[in-house]
From TrEMBL:
GO terms for cellular component: cytosol; extracellular region; plasma membrane. The keyword Metal-binding does not apply. It comes from the Eukaryota. It comes from Pan paniscus (Pygmy chimpanzee). Gene3D superfamilies: Immunoglobulins. Pfam families: Interfer-bind, Tissue_fac. This is Interleukin-22 receptor subunit alpha-2. SUPFAM superfamilies: Fibronectin type III (SSF49265). Belongs to the type II cytokine receptor family. Residues 1-21 form the signal peptide.
Length: 263
């Protein structure tokens, strides 16, 4: 017969090993690299499987919450620094609620999903407010701990696409018409709403003389219609454009080149 003190030691060791194993399993299931990816205020939560997960053997659960701060009167006004203040006692701002955390909310469309992403565009539509998202995994009856994103504020962090560009030849010159990206459908009522409604934007237009293989910046400013003159007849040119955000010191990727032959 096993001595009493040996049996107790074995039992304690067994329990501790079981607890450690459970903790290790939960940790290995925990989603990795949970973060928001945002383009033109399309805000997508993305993550990678935990170390122990392969294939489609697991499901994921997504929650989100907003951290209240300060907001603008109109959702179509440019931000005026509300998030930098501890109160809204100045023109143009109003307090949505007391500072602090809301409760975590389930994202129903991503509750038990097998995907590695979740569209939270509608849930993060107050673009100057900070948000958090979190994800947990489940597999074979075991659940991981929650894995949370860094703080995410759409106005600061979204990346904007290059401008849409149309080119027309007019008497040996090029008329370049630029359009900023539109926002997601949730902002649209009677008309499309542009990124220009939320940022100060500068357009940069470059022209490339194909025969000389030389690029030149021909315009930088807020106008969306640019005329390029003094072009050499019987030459080939390509035009490309980008958007610059002075307040954030950030620029978009360049648009696709549009090439024309000057008669």
């Amino acid at each position: 017969m096993m001595p009493k003190h040996c049996f107790l030691g074995f039992l304690i060791s067994f329990v501790l090993t079981g607890v450690a194993g459970t903790q290790s399993t939960h940790e290995s299931l925990k989603p990795q690299r949970v973060q928001f990816q945002s383009r033109n205020f399309h805000n997508i939560l993305q993550w990678q499987p935990g170390r122990a997960l392969t294939g489609n053997s697991s499901v994921y659960f997504v929650q989100y919450k907003i951290m209240f701060s300060c907001s603008m009167k109109s959702s179509h006004q440019k931000p005026s620094g509300c998030w930098q203040h501890t109160s809204c006692n100045f023109p143009g701002c109003r307090t949505l609620a007391k500072y602090g955390q809301r409760q975590w909310k389930n994202k129903e469309d991503c509750w038990g999903t097998q995907e590695l992403f979740c569209d939270l565009t509608s849930e993060t539509s107050d673009i100057q407010e900070p948000y958090y998202g979190r994800v947990r995994a489940a597999s074979a009856g075991s659940y991981s701990e929650w894995s949370m994103t860094p703080r995410f504020t759409p106005w600061w962090e979204t990346k904007i696409d290059p401008p849409v560009m149309n080119i027309t030849q007019v008497n040996g010159s090029l008329l370049v018409i630029l359009h900023a990206p539109n926002l997601p459908y949730r902002y649209q009522k009677e008309k499309n709403v542009s990124i220009e409604d939320y940022y100060e934007l500068l357009y940069r237009v470059f022209i490339i003389n194909n025969s000389l293989e030389k690029e030149q910046k021909v315009y930088e400013g807020a106008h969306r219609v640019v005329e390029i003159e003094a072009l050499t007849p019987h030459s080939s040119y390509c035009v490309v454009a980008e958007i610059y955000q002075p307040m954030l010191d950030r620029r978009s990727q360049r648009s696709e080149e549009r090439c024309v032959e000057i008669p």
